[in-house]
C-alpha cells in the first residue's frame, strides 16, 4: 500500500471538508457555492479544483445519505 498517496488523499479530503465548513456546517452545499469558495481561497489551478470538487461531492453524498434527526450531520 502506498501510504504517501493515502496521506495525500486524506489531506485533500480534509481541505475539501474545511472549505465545506466555511460555507455551511450542514449538508446541502451546491457545486456553485463550493467553486465560489475555491475562488475566495485563491485556488485557481484546474486540476486542484477538480480534485477538491470531487472530494467535496463525495463528502456531501455520504452526509446526504444519513438521516438521523437526533444527531444532526455536520461536516
Describe the structure in your own words.
This protein is an all-alpha fold and 75 residues long. It is 67% helix and 0% strand. The chain is built from three helices and no strands. The protein has helices at 3-23, 31-40, 46-64. Helix 1 (3-23) crosses helix 3. The termini are far apart. The mean pLDDT is 88.
Helix content: 55-70%
- Spatial extent as radius of gyration: 13 Å
Coarse morphology? globular
Mean pLDDT score, rounded? 88
The helix-strand sequence is HHH
Structural class: mainly alpha
Largest sheet: none
**If helices are DSSP runs of H or I spanning 4 or more residues, what is the number of helices?**
3
- Strand content of the residues, in percent? under 5%
Number of distinct beta strands = 0
| Low-pLDDT regions | none
Distance between the termini: 28 Å
